[in-house]
Amino acid sequence: MPRVVSVYFPYLATDRIRRHGGHEVPADQPLVVISKNGSKRWISASDANALKLGLRIGMPASRAQAMVTNLVMVDASPAEDAVALKRLALWALRQYSPVVAVDGTDGIVIDTEGADHLKGGEELLISGLVNMLRAKGLTAKAAVADTWGAAHAIARLTTETTTVVPIGGITQAVMGLPIHCLRLAPDTVHDLRAMGVETVGELAAMPRAPLTLRFGPEPGRRLDQLFGRVAEPIEPLRTPELVEVSRNFQEPIGAPETIEKYVRRLVGQLTAKLEKRGLGVRRSDLVIHRVDNTTQSLRAGLAKPVRDPTRLSKLLCDRIEKIDPGYGIEKMVLVAIMAEPLEEKQVASSLIEEAAVDYTPIVDILQNRGQRLYRVTPVASDVPERSVARIAPTAEETGADWAAKWGRPLRLFARPEEIEVIAVLPDQPPAVFTWRGKRRRVKRADGPERIFGEWWLTPRERQAVRDYFVVEDEIGERYWVFRAGDGVDMATGSHSWFVQGVFG
C-alpha cells in the first residue's frame, strides 16, 4: 500500500533569510518578506512573531510598518526560496526515500512505501524528520497518508506538527476540510464557495456530471486523487550530477527471474559509469515504473563506497520479492543517490601477516533487511551510563579505553534500577537489599569507590557524588550498587540506592 509524506514549511522564506540571507535578525524580532509590483509593495511571507502582532499576508508594507515599529522587512527572492526548497528535497532524497519531489513553493512530498521501517515506523520517521529540520532552523509540519492529496491537505490545515492518517482512513480525515485544500485554482474555489460549497465532504456529495459541466474536470480529478481513486505519481527529483541508468521495455515484464536479469544488467551499466568517474556507490535506488502509472522502489545502502556489480546486485536482488509488478513493469531506473570517490588500493601479499577481514558485506546485508547495527566504544566519563557510546559498525577505532582501575561488571544496565537497602550511613555497604521484588542478604562487600558529578556537563552535578560497592549475596551472585550522595549532606544526592550492573 503506497504511503506518502507531505512536509510543509509555513515560514520557508523567513527561515531561509535567518539562516542564509545575510541578515542578522534576532529570533524574537518580527520579520516579513516584501514583494512589489511597480509602486505597490505588500507582505508575501511572514514569520510567526509578525503574525502574532496582527500582520497578514497581502497586507500593504506601509501599513505593516505603521503597526510594528521594530519590524524587519526584506525584499522577496522567489528564486532563492526555490533553490532552498530543492536543496531540502535533495536532503530528503538521500536520507529517507528514493522518491522525493518538490511540492509547490512551500513543501516537499516523499513516497515512503517500504522505507518507513528503516526509521522505526511512520511515527518515528516523521517526528524525526521534523526534529532534524527544527535543528537546522526550519519550521516544518508533516503528515503521512495513503495519497499525496490527503497528506498535502492535512499537513497544511491541521494544527498538529505531525499527523499519521491510518491506512484506509482518508475519508474520515478529510471530509471536514475546506475545499481550498484540493489544490484548485483560486477562481474555482471562489465560485464553489459562492454556491455554498465549503468543505470536501460537501463537494464530494455533489453529482459529478453537473460539477464537471460547470467547472471542468479539475475538481473531480482532484477529488479522485485525494481519495486514491486515480493515481497521482510522484516524479522523483533528479539532478545532473547523479549517476543514473534506465531500461524501457516494449512489452511489460513481471516474472521475478526477468526482473532479476534486468536488475543485474542495470547494475553493470551503473558500475561502468561510476568507474569512468572514479566513484563508488554508497546508496542506490531502484525505481520501478508500472503500466498503471504507479511506482515502486528499492533502496540499497552500503557501509563504504563500492563498485562491485556482484555485491550491489545481491543487495537489490535479495529483495525482489518486495516488488509487486501489478499489470507489468514498463521501465526500470537505477540511480546512485550517494556516490563517493573510490581509490583502488593494492593489497601487499605477506607470508606472515594476515589480510584484514572485510566484514562490510554482511553489515550491508543485515542493514538492508532493516536491522539497526552499531558498535559500542568507550567514552572518557566516570559516570558508568555515560562511559559508552554507539558508533557505526564500520567506524574507525577511536583508541579510547576505560581508565577505571576498579573492576566493572560484565552486564551494565542502561539506566540504574532503584533498590531498597538496609545500611549504616555514611560509609557502610548494604547489609540487605531488595531488587526486583526479591530480598537479598549481603555476605561480602568491597568499597566504597566514589565518583563525582560531571559539573562541566551539567551544573546541577557540581556537588553530586556516588559511592559504589561491589556486593555478593548468600548464593554467590555479585552486584554493582551505589548510593546517590555521600550519606551526610543531602545536597550531594538523594541518598537513594541503585543497582548499576551484575558481575558474571
From TrEMBL:
Its cofactor is Mg(2+). Transmembrane segments: none annotated. It comes from the Bacteria. Its EC number is 2.7.7.7. Keywords: DNA damage. It is an enzyme of class 2 (transferase). GO terms for biological process: DNA repair. InterPro entries: DNA/RNA_pol_sf, DNA_pol_Y-fam_little_finger, SulA_CellDiv_inhibitor, UmuC. It catalyses: DNA(n) + a 2'-deoxyribonucleoside 5'-triphosphate = DNA(n+1) + diphosphate. Residues 28-152 form the UmuC domain. Residues 245-342 form the DNA polymerase Y-family little finger domain. One of its GO terms (molecular function) is damaged DNA binding. Poorly processive, error-prone DNA polymerase involved in untargeted mutagenesis. Copies undamaged DNA at stalled replication forks, which arise in vivo from mismatched or misaligned primer ends. These misaligned primers can be extended by PolIV. Exhibits no 3'-5' exonuclease (proofreading) activity. May be involved in translesional synthesis, in conjunction with the beta clamp from PolIII. Monomer. This is DNA-directed DNA polymerase. It comes from Rhizobium leguminosarum.
